[in-house]
Amino acid sequence: MHTLLLLIATVSNASEPFSFTVVGDTQTDGSHTSINWDVLPPMIEGMNALEPDLSIFVGDLVGGSGSLSATVSQWQDFDSVTSALTSRRYLVPGNHDMYGGQGTFNAWATMWPELPRDNSPEGEEGMTYYFDYEGVRFISVLTDDPVQGYVSVTQPDWLDAVLAESGDFEHIFVYTHHPVSFSTESPTGGSEGRFWQSLIAADVTGFFSGHWHRYQPSQLGGGGETWETIIGTGGGAFFAPWREYQQRYGFLFVEVDGARVDATFYTDSDGDGDYDDAIDHYVMSWDGEPETGLVAHYDFQEGLEDIGALSISKSVDGALFGNANWL
Description:
Layout: E1 18-23, H1 40-49, E2 54-57, H2 68-82, E3 88-91, H3 104-111, E4 129-133, E5 136-140, E6 144-145, E7 149-150, H4 156-164, E8 171-175, H5 194-201, E9 206-209, E10 216-219, E11 227-230, E12 250-257, E13 260-267, E14 277-285, E15 296-298, E16 304-306
Parallel strand pairs: 1-2, 2-3, 5-8, 8-9, 9-11
Antiparallel strand pairs: 1-12, 4-5, 6-7, 10-11, 12-13, 13-14, 15-16
């Protein structure tokens, strides 16, 4: 008599943990042409040391030029340095990348044909697009135009449609060049604008941007818990207002493991030329209940005391205007 054994194998659909880096404004600081040659090459080495799966650059790759051919030549400098990455590159242009004027879109698409093109609105292939990785959706949104300069966030209907079909993803990450913070100068419309409201309505985990050459992670609110992280700078010059703790050359390292997302900012704080110093860490998404607690204490005697854990103690810097004052 033969015995028949039925073996049932279960296959897990769980995504594998992965990581990615985010870098902004690798342009020159004014002492170089195209890129900051003192910062970007060693920064690429620091990124490779962490072995990320993806690397995202949020615009202003180069200093830019009114000549399209000169802009393309600068892009080639950027390409030659970042080709050393062991991870796959994803890029979105910034305003400095658009100084070449008419023809810049076509030149961009020719320069980086490997960027996603099938999932783009017409005319913005390789600039506005989305791609999926390990159960996570990434969306790139162009916020600059080579002729008009700053424009409203491009293709809002396209973005809303993509977000509407992204509900089954564990996380959604969106990146542009211009931030939502400091919206008096930028085109994204502030926390009450359509762009940010679309992100929080879709429960986007994280939004990454550059342009302001400073590092600022915060939950802007406006009805949701999405994080906005303005990336320090990958080489661009610093400018007023001066806040040394924000104005750092560096990159963000993001680790995704199921529901949990951790973000760590790396810079060269000890001045040894290596971008291996982690100076800040926060949790963008928790596996279980989020950490809560007292962030700061103001006692009207000694003033404000920041006593919160790093993972929950984040704030947006601001200034007083008009007749406003502290009492």
